[in-house]
Inverse folding.
Protein backbone atom coordinates (compact mmCIF):
# COMPACT_ATOMS: atom_id res chain seq x y z
CA UNK A 1 0.00 0.00 0.00
CA UNK A 2 2.99 2.32 0.27
CA UNK A 3 6.27 2.58 -1.59
CA UNK A 4 9.37 1.16 0.01
CA UNK A 5 12.52 0.99 -2.06
CA UNK A 6 13.54 -2.53 -3.03
CA UNK A 7 13.91 -4.20 -6.39
CA UNK A 8 10.70 -6.19 -5.95
CA UNK A 9 8.74 -2.95 -5.51
CA UNK A 10 9.64 -1.78 -9.03
CA UNK A 11 7.29 -3.36 -11.62
CA UNK A 12 9.72 -2.77 -14.51
CA UNK A 13 12.73 -4.24 -12.75
CA UNK A 14 10.75 -7.20 -11.41
CA UNK A 15 9.31 -7.93 -14.86
CA UNK A 16 12.80 -7.72 -16.39
CA UNK A 17 14.08 -10.45 -14.07
CA UNK A 18 11.03 -12.60 -14.85
CA UNK A 19 11.71 -12.06 -18.56
CA UNK A 20 15.26 -13.42 -18.18
CA UNK A 21 13.81 -16.54 -16.55
CA UNK A 22 11.20 -17.00 -19.29
CA UNK A 23 13.86 -16.64 -21.97
CA UNK A 24 16.17 -19.14 -20.23
CA UNK A 25 13.30 -21.67 -19.98
CA UNK A 26 12.51 -21.27 -23.69
CA UNK A 27 9.00 -19.90 -23.09
CA UNK A 28 8.63 -18.18 -26.46
CA UNK A 29 5.03 -17.01 -25.99
CA UNK A 30 5.64 -15.66 -22.50
CA UNK A 31 8.85 -14.00 -23.60
CA UNK A 32 7.18 -12.23 -26.53
CA UNK A 33 4.33 -10.93 -24.38
CA UNK A 34 6.73 -9.72 -21.69
CA UNK A 35 8.96 -7.91 -24.18
CA UNK A 36 5.86 -6.26 -25.66
CA UNK A 37 4.81 -5.11 -22.19
CA UNK A 38 8.23 -3.66 -21.35
CA UNK A 39 8.36 -1.90 -24.71
CA UNK A 40 4.93 -0.36 -24.10
CA UNK A 41 6.17 1.13 -20.81
CA UNK A 42 9.32 2.60 -22.36
CA UNK A 43 9.58 6.39 -22.63
CA UNK A 44 11.93 7.40 -25.42
CA UNK A 45 15.24 5.69 -24.61
CA UNK A 46 14.45 4.94 -20.96
CA UNK A 47 11.81 3.60 -18.58
CA UNK A 48 11.40 5.27 -15.18
CA UNK A 49 14.77 5.12 -13.44
CA UNK A 50 18.37 4.39 -14.42
CA UNK A 51 18.21 1.15 -12.46
CA UNK A 52 15.07 -0.32 -14.05
CA UNK A 53 16.22 0.91 -17.47
CA UNK A 54 19.44 -1.08 -17.13
CA UNK A 55 17.51 -4.18 -16.01
CA UNK A 56 15.02 -3.89 -18.90
CA UNK A 57 17.71 -3.38 -21.57
CA UNK A 58 19.75 -6.30 -20.24
CA UNK A 59 16.73 -8.62 -20.17
CA UNK A 60 15.43 -7.67 -23.63
CA UNK A 61 18.93 -8.11 -25.10
CA UNK A 62 19.00 -11.67 -23.74
CA UNK A 63 15.83 -12.53 -25.69
CA UNK A 64 17.36 -11.69 -29.08
CA UNK A 65 18.94 -14.80 -30.69
CA UNK A 66 22.30 -14.54 -32.44
CA UNK A 67 20.60 -15.41 -35.73
CA UNK A 68 18.11 -12.55 -35.51
CA UNK A 69 17.61 -10.65 -38.80
CA UNK A 70 17.82 -7.49 -36.74
CA UNK A 71 21.63 -7.75 -36.81
CA UNK A 72 21.76 -7.38 -40.61
CA UNK A 73 18.80 -5.20 -41.61
CA UNK A 74 17.97 -3.77 -45.02
CA UNK A 75 14.70 -1.94 -44.53
CA UNK A 76 13.04 1.41 -45.06
CA UNK A 77 11.09 3.03 -42.23
CA UNK A 78 8.58 5.82 -42.76
CA UNK A 79 7.01 7.91 -40.01
CA UNK A 80 3.91 9.90 -40.93
CA UNK A 81 1.33 12.09 -39.20
CA UNK A 82 -2.17 11.94 -40.68
CA UNK A 83 -0.73 10.54 -43.89
CA UNK A 84 2.00 13.17 -44.27
CA UNK A 85 5.54 11.78 -44.19
CA UNK A 86 7.62 13.28 -41.37
CA UNK A 87 10.80 11.28 -41.99
CA UNK A 88 12.06 8.34 -44.04
CA UNK A 89 15.07 6.33 -42.86
CA UNK A 90 16.86 3.54 -44.72
CA UNK A 91 18.29 1.12 -42.14
CA UNK A 92 21.32 -0.99 -43.04
CA UNK A 93 22.92 -1.50 -39.62
CA UNK A 94 21.68 -2.70 -36.25
CA UNK A 95 22.47 0.49 -34.32
CA UNK A 96 21.37 3.78 -35.89
CA UNK A 97 23.02 7.15 -35.67
CA UNK A 98 21.19 9.41 -33.21
CA UNK A 99 20.12 11.70 -36.08
CA UNK A 100 18.17 8.79 -37.58
CA UNK A 101 17.14 7.05 -34.36
CA UNK A 102 15.34 10.09 -32.90
CA UNK A 103 12.37 11.54 -34.78
CA UNK A 104 10.62 14.59 -33.36
CA UNK A 105 7.01 15.35 -34.26
CA UNK A 106 6.36 19.05 -33.54
CA UNK A 107 3.19 19.99 -31.70
CA UNK A 108 2.13 22.15 -34.66
CA UNK A 109 1.70 18.93 -36.70
CA UNK A 110 -0.73 17.40 -34.20
CA UNK A 111 -4.39 18.01 -33.59
CA UNK A 112 -7.03 16.13 -31.57
CA UNK A 113 -7.45 12.69 -33.15
CA UNK A 114 -4.18 12.76 -35.10
CA UNK A 115 -2.64 9.44 -36.11
CA UNK A 116 1.10 8.86 -35.98
CA UNK A 117 2.00 5.87 -38.17
CA UNK A 118 5.26 3.88 -38.41
CA UNK A 119 5.60 1.73 -41.55
CA UNK A 120 8.45 -0.47 -42.67
CA UNK A 121 9.42 -2.50 -45.74
CA UNK A 122 12.38 -4.79 -46.31
CA UNK A 123 14.12 -7.26 -44.03
CA UNK A 124 15.21 -6.94 -40.45
CA UNK A 125 13.57 -6.00 -37.17
CA UNK A 126 12.21 -2.68 -35.93
CA UNK A 127 11.91 -1.59 -32.31
CA UNK A 128 10.38 1.74 -31.43
CA UNK A 129 9.09 3.68 -28.45
CA UNK A 130 7.47 7.05 -27.99
CA UNK A 131 7.65 9.84 -25.45
CA UNK A 132 5.53 12.95 -25.09
CA UNK A 133 6.73 16.19 -23.53
CA UNK A 134 4.36 19.03 -22.74
CA UNK A 135 5.28 22.51 -21.55
CA UNK A 136 2.61 24.28 -19.53
CA UNK A 137 2.44 28.09 -19.35
CA UNK A 138 3.44 29.59 -15.99
CA UNK A 139 -0.14 30.36 -14.96
CA UNK A 140 -1.17 26.68 -15.28
CA UNK A 141 -0.44 24.80 -12.04
CA UNK A 142 -1.75 21.34 -12.98
CA UNK A 143 -2.15 19.24 -16.13
CA UNK A 144 -3.45 15.74 -16.70
CA UNK A 145 -3.48 13.04 -19.37
CA UNK A 146 -6.02 10.30 -19.96
CA UNK A 147 -3.31 7.64 -20.12
CA UNK A 148 -1.74 6.50 -16.85
CA UNK A 149 1.64 4.89 -16.38
CA UNK A 150 2.10 1.52 -14.72
CA UNK A 151 3.44 3.28 -11.63
CA UNK A 152 0.33 5.45 -11.44
CA UNK A 153 -1.87 2.37 -11.81
CA UNK A 154 -0.05 0.36 -9.14
CA UNK A 155 0.47 3.26 -6.75
CA UNK A 156 -2.59 5.51 -7.15
CA UNK A 157 -2.02 7.29 -3.84
CA UNK A 158 1.03 9.40 -4.52
CA UNK A 159 2.55 11.09 -1.46
CA UNK A 160 2.70 14.75 -2.51
CA UNK A 161 5.82 16.82 -2.02
CA UNK A 162 6.11 20.58 -1.71
CA UNK A 163 9.21 22.74 -2.14
CA UNK A 164 9.75 26.39 -1.27
CA UNK A 165 12.70 28.78 -1.49
CA UNK A 166 13.55 32.09 0.16
CA UNK A 167 16.33 34.62 -0.48
CA UNK A 168 17.81 36.86 2.22
CA UNK A 169 20.33 39.63 1.46
CA UNK A 170 20.16 41.26 4.89
CA UNK A 171 18.55 44.41 3.47
CA UNK A 172 15.33 45.42 1.73
CA UNK A 173 14.91 46.30 -1.92
CA UNK A 174 16.93 45.31 -4.95
CA UNK A 175 20.02 43.16 -4.72
CA UNK A 176 23.38 44.93 -5.11
CA UNK A 177 26.56 43.75 -6.76
CA UNK A 178 28.69 42.19 -4.02
CA UNK A 179 25.73 41.11 -1.86
CA UNK A 180 25.79 37.72 -0.22
CA UNK A 181 22.40 36.04 -0.79
CA UNK A 182 21.49 33.40 1.77
CA UNK A 183 19.29 30.77 0.13
CA UNK A 184 16.96 28.48 2.08
CA UNK A 185 15.16 25.60 0.33
CA UNK A 186 12.58 23.61 2.28
CA UNK A 187 10.99 20.33 1.16
CA UNK A 188 7.96 18.82 2.89
CA UNK A 189 6.15 15.50 2.35
CA UNK A 190 2.73 14.23 3.41
CA UNK A 191 4.30 10.83 4.00
CA UNK A 192 7.85 9.50 3.95
CA UNK A 193 9.50 9.61 0.51
CA UNK A 194 12.82 7.88 -0.14
CA UNK A 195 15.75 8.98 -2.32
CA UNK A 196 14.71 12.51 -3.20
CA UNK A 197 16.67 14.86 -5.47
CA UNK A 198 16.25 18.59 -4.88
CA UNK A 199 17.34 21.00 -7.61
CA UNK A 200 17.50 24.76 -7.17
CA UNK A 201 18.33 26.78 -10.32
CA UNK A 202 20.32 30.00 -9.87
CA UNK A 203 19.26 33.34 -11.29
CA UNK A 204 21.79 34.73 -13.75
CA UNK A 205 24.17 37.36 -12.40
CA UNK A 206 25.27 35.35 -9.34
CA UNK A 207 27.95 32.86 -8.38
CA UNK A 208 27.70 30.24 -5.65
CA UNK A 209 30.17 30.12 -2.79
CA UNK A 210 29.24 27.26 -0.47
CA UNK A 211 31.55 25.80 2.12
CA UNK A 212 31.25 22.22 3.26
CA UNK A 213 29.06 22.05 6.34
CA UNK A 214 27.27 25.34 5.61
CA UNK A 215 24.37 23.74 3.76
CA UNK A 216 22.56 22.11 6.66
CA UNK A 217 22.62 18.49 7.78
CA UNK A 218 19.62 17.04 5.95
CA UNK A 219 21.33 16.05 2.72
CA UNK A 220 23.24 12.88 1.91
CA UNK A 221 25.03 14.35 -1.12
CA UNK A 222 25.27 17.59 -3.07
CA UNK A 223 26.55 18.90 -6.39
CA UNK A 224 26.99 22.49 -7.55
CA UNK A 225 26.82 23.33 -11.25
CA UNK A 226 27.14 26.64 -13.08
CA UNK A 227 23.38 27.08 -13.16
CA UNK A 228 21.97 25.17 -10.16
CA UNK A 229 22.54 23.44 -6.86
CA UNK A 230 21.48 19.80 -6.50
CA UNK A 231 21.02 18.02 -3.19
CA UNK A 232 20.14 14.39 -2.46
CA UNK A 233 18.22 13.23 0.60
CA UNK A 234 17.93 9.57 1.58
CA UNK A 235 14.46 10.23 3.01
CA UNK A 236 12.10 13.19 3.32
CA UNK A 237 10.13 12.35 6.43
CA UNK A 238 6.55 13.36 7.01
CA UNK A 239 7.37 14.80 10.42
CA UNK A 240 10.63 16.54 9.56
CA UNK A 241 10.96 18.82 6.55
CA UNK A 242 14.31 18.92 4.78
CA UNK A 243 15.91 22.37 5.04
CA UNK A 244 18.91 23.26 2.86
CA UNK A 245 20.95 26.44 3.04
CA UNK A 246 23.74 27.85 0.93
CA UNK A 247 25.12 31.22 -0.15
CA UNK A 248 25.27 33.05 -3.48
CA UNK A 249 27.28 36.18 -4.30
CA UNK A 250 25.81 38.80 -6.64
CA UNK A 251 28.20 39.67 -9.49
CA UNK A 252 26.32 41.34 -12.36
CA UNK A 253 23.65 44.06 -12.47
CA UNK A 254 20.41 43.43 -14.34
CA UNK A 255 16.97 41.86 -14.00
CA UNK A 256 16.89 38.08 -13.89
CA UNK A 257 14.48 35.20 -13.45
CA UNK A 258 15.21 32.58 -10.80
CA UNK A 259 13.42 29.41 -12.04
CA UNK A 260 11.47 27.58 -9.36
CA UNK A 261 13.17 24.83 -7.32
CA UNK A 262 11.97 21.26 -7.78
CA UNK A 263 12.09 18.02 -5.84
CA UNK A 264 11.41 14.51 -7.08
CA UNK A 265 11.69 10.88 -6.02
CA UNK A 266 14.48 9.38 -8.13
CA UNK A 267 13.36 5.74 -8.05
CA UNK A 268 9.63 5.73 -7.43
CA UNK A 269 6.81 6.20 -7.14
CA UNK A 270 6.68 9.10 -9.65
CA UNK A 271 6.41 11.96 -7.17
CA UNK A 272 7.59 15.50 -7.91
CA UNK A 273 7.05 19.06 -6.74
CA UNK A 274 7.73 22.38 -8.42
CA UNK A 275 8.31 25.62 -6.53
CA UNK A 276 7.60 29.18 -7.67
CA UNK A 277 9.87 31.22 -9.92
CA UNK A 278 10.75 34.79 -8.94
CA UNK A 279 12.25 37.82 -10.66
CA UNK A 280 15.22 39.53 -9.02
CA UNK A 281 16.67 42.95 -9.78
CA UNK A 282 20.36 43.69 -9.24
CA UNK A 283 21.64 47.26 -8.93
CA UNK A 284 25.25 48.26 -9.73
Amino acid sequence: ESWHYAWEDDPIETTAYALRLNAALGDAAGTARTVAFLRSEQHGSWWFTTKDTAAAIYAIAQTVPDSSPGFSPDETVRVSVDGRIVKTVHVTKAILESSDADITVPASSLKPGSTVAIERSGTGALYWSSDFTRYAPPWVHATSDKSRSIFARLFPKQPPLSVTRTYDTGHKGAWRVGDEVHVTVTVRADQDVQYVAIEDPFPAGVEYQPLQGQTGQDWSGMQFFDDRAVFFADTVYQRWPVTLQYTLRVTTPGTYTAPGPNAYAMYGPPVAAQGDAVTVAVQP
About this structure: The first strand starts at residue 74 and ends at 81. The two ends are 55 Å apart (CA to CA). The CA atoms of residues 135 and 143 lie 10 Å apart.
